[in-house]
Amino acid sequence: MFFGVEAGVSAELNKNTTIERTFNTPNTTTTTTTKWSDAFPLGAVGLKFGYTHFFNRWAGLRGYATYHYVYQYNYSKTDTNTRITDGNGALVNQANNPSQTISSSSGLSSYHQVAANIEAVFKFANIGNNSAIGGFIGLGAGYADSYARGSTQTANGRGNIGNTQGPSGFVLPINVGLEVYVGRHHNASLAFRLPTIATDLVTTNTAGTRISTDELRQLIITAGYYYKF
Asked: Partners of 100 in the beta sheet?
């Protein structure tokens, strides 16, 4: 049995592209495209608890539960272009057509991930005194949830502050890394949790039509220590 703690950084990929078409008259279509990007990692911490069994001196299996918390600063820039066209695709002659609105937003986001994990563990170099260098590779399965508190600033200087729900859902990370075994009870590790699928946040309008989808993939890199009982 073992219990461990981890600390490190996280890198996020979260890009949203929204296209909304509103039919004002039979021959008029308004199309708006919005693009989001950029997130800057701060920190990640984690806990793990489980059991390791070595079949021989060099190879074994490990099963354990993990909890990771990520705290990030995000910055996004939105460029919205609106074009009103007739049925032939020509621009309708009216004020502010086409039009462009540029806004920016920043905030702090919280990301929580709980997962069950199974890994193959192995030692490939003995360094004496019951110590060795090894590695691991495996798979996790669990649930992630995220929230954000941020501010939005438009080109005309207006802004607002609020809390929003972030992408949430099932996660399936690949776990890979290196370990140092020190004596019978101490282990240190460098671990990478590589996202394989994205968690989603779907936004709909008042009619229930989907107007945007946020897709989030969270890479977590940590250095850890765990104690074997």
From this structure: 81
90-144 pLDDT tens trace: 777 777 777 777 777 777 788 999 999 999 999 999 988 889 999 999 999 999 9
Q: How far apart are CA 55 and CA 139, in angstroms?
A: 20
Single-letter amino acid code for the residue at 3: F
pTM > 0.85: yes or no: no
pLDDT tens readout for residues 127-138? 888 899 999 999
Question: Is residue 166's pLDDT more than 50?
Answer: yes
SS (H, E, C) the chain: CEEEEEEEEEEEEEECEEEEEEEEECCEEEEEEEECCCEEEEEEEEEEEEEEEECCCCEEEEEEEEEEEEEEEEEEEEEEEEEEECCCCCECCCCCCCEEEEEEEEEEEEEEEEEEEEEEEEEEEEEECCEEEEEEEEEEEEEEEEEEEEEEEECCCCEEEEEEECCEEEECCEEEEEEEEECCCEEEEEEEEECCCCEEEEEECCCCCEEEEEEEEEEEEEEEEEEEC
Q: Is residue 211 within 8 Å of 202, Cβ to Cβ?
A: no
Has residue 33 got a pLDDT over 80?
A: no
